[in-house]
Amino acid sequence: MKMIRTLLASALAGLCFAASAQWQWIDKDGHKVFSDRAPPADIQEKNILKRPGNRKLTVTVTPDSASEADAPAATAAPLLPASAAKTSGLDKELEAKKKQAAEAEAAKRKAAEAEVTKAKVENCARAKQAKATFDSGVRIGQTNAAGEREIMDEAARAAEVKRINAILARDCN
Question: Is there a smaller number of Cβ atoms within 10 Å at the N or the C end of the chain?
Fold first, then answer.
């Protein structure tokens, strides 16, 4: 029994939700029309009374006997709900904040790219100097783990030249 009540309550809630997503307009004969679909294209904007999403427009509808000279004026300046004026200011602030955040992010990215470029230039200069030293054929010494100075043998020298060439290929292009 509780399950039937629950189903019935959820069905009624669904119907209420569906009913809130309705269009309301005045047709060409002056009758109010309620529908879950948008009005036909021949219905003027001033004759649409309600749209889905609870966005009611404050529009004064006159019968068809009113002068047609008023119709262009009504369609030229669309009427907005009173809350639209408040939200437009908030939207402008939000857009300004988004733009400012995007500019700050772009500046950070540009600074990071400049830092990476500077590091590559320095690495390239050091690698070129090291390659010139190795290409000259001078004996090169290095310090081992015990703190003693050792002269590089041919295998260690070849490995170091290979590492320097990789740095040159990566940073000096």
Answer: N
